[in-house]
Amino acid sequence: MPRNDGKPWSDTDERLLHQLYPNDSNATLGKIFGRRPRNVQQKALALGLRKSEAYMATGPGQFPPGNQPWCKGLTGLKLGSEDTHFKKGQKSHNWVPLGSERLAKDGYRQRKVTDTGYPPRDWRMVHHLVWEEHNGRPVPEGHIVAFRDGDKANVTPENLMCITTAENMRRNSIHRLPPELSDLCRLRGSLTRKINRRARS
User: Fold this and answer.
1) Could you tell me if residue 45 is inside a domain?
2) Residue-level pLDDT at 145
């Protein structure tokens, strides 16, 4: 790790960065300031610094003319052991069939409905599927399916209700709490913001 990474920038370093950043590479500046090039770039962005037009005209970060990638002409190159390569039609070790269910991190049950290989499309919330099957239509845009008793495991049609996102926000708002708890939540939020501001400064 470079010697100055993680340390605050001094006023002198900031003034020098203002002078050098427009016409020097981040790699060079990293060596000057004892920091990673990424750290230099982040500080420059925070200060609103930009590379000069003359520097950008040199094409930094581009391959020089005539440079060729090491794998040019090696179509179908396979690295590593032949035993570790996927065979045509082979499924991954974590593949499961359609209809399989899983418990998501947020506690909702999900069911595999397609097999495209793209999880956000392949897996759907079970309570949405149950509500749609019972009502014969998809969940309307701007609405969610909520649980009447608050139990995510109880996905019977009688326990599901379709409400607007605004109504759901009101249901989960601190305004529904008793006054003393609402005040406590506000105080906690205020204290957290002050702690975060103090930590940043």
Assistant:
1) yes
2) 95
Cα dihedral 151/154/160/166 (nearest 10): 30
Q: Which helix (H) or strand (E) holds 165?
A: helix 165-171
Note the pLDDT tens digit of each residue in 99-131.
Answer: 999 998 888 999 999 998 888 899 999 999 999
Domain that holds residue 144: 96-201
Q: Is residue 5 part of a domain?
A: no
Global pTM exceeds 0.90 = no
Residue 145, in any domain of the structure: yes
The total domain count for the chain is 2
Q: Do 5 and 36 form a contact (C-beta atoms < 8 A)?
A: yes
Q: What mean pLDDT is predicted for residues 149-178? A: 85
Joined together, the tokens standing for residue 137 give 């239509």
Q: How far apart are CA 75 and CA 189, in angstroms?
A: 58
Angle, vertex CA 59, rays to CA 57 and CA 64, nearest 5: 140
- Helix and strand numbers (H, E) in the chain are 8, 5
